[in-house]
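Re: beginner question about structure tokens

> Can someone show what the tokenized structure looks like for a real chain? I only ever see the sequence side.

Sure, here's an example I had lying around. Input first:
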Amino acid sequence: MNRSLLSKFIIIVLALPALLLPGACLAYILFKGLPVLSGSFIFSATEGLGFGVSSGVLAQLLGSLLLALAASLLATPFALGTAFYYCLYASKRQQTLLAGLLNMLQSIPPIVFGLFGLIVFVHLLQWGVSLLSGAVILAMVILPMLVLNSIASLERIPAQYTEAAQSLGLHDGAIISRVWLAQAWPGILTGQLLGIARALSETAPILFTATVFSGVVWPASIFSPVTTLQTHIFYLAQEGSRQEVIQVAWGSAVVLLGLVAVFALLARYLASRYENSQRLGVE
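And the corresponding structure tokens:
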């Protein structure tokens, strides 16, 4: 065996677990959860009798979507403002410090954000366990990712576009609205979709700040709690001795995976279209 074949063999051996293990995990979840799915399971919100025995997960589905969308709406203005400052006004040193800070914030465990939200928003500000508390905490979790994605989208814009706008005497606000956003909006929107998918994947932050197990279909106000698929699965998993409850948990897991996949695939499709349009523009 020559060195080329040996290198190829080693790479394949190292790559296979990274492909097979997540694939096997996904296949097992689908195997356990798909038999539970039905129209009534997804689109009904009437609680059954007993802990976790529910005739549907519509309330949890709506709660998950509401929290993720609210977090994205809250985080987006701050993400864009930070990205515009980074590209317009920050010095090289400030850009380095800001990039380092954002990467550090991304590495903070989400449960730490949840503990912060419990102390500050739930108790200190007395927002209680509520939609507002959970949305703000999730916005904090996804904010670094949104900022970095926005910066990357703005940096892909050819420098001559900005230089031409400046030579025409456009002020910073006009450059942002007429040049940068017009060119970078597909990349920025892709980041928003990925941010929503990330928010849908988080459990620990909202476990402390936003959710109850049941009894809520739609929050009465921003200071009311919600119920979500993430915490629904968490609570059900604690009742491992009851088979009917575990079946509901598997079904809820498939619904959550499908929800995350929808936003992730939309983001991937949009990113692919954006890259193709950029390539055609360059050519």
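Each token stands for a local structural state, so reading them left to right follows the chain. The two ends are 43 Å apart (CA to CA).
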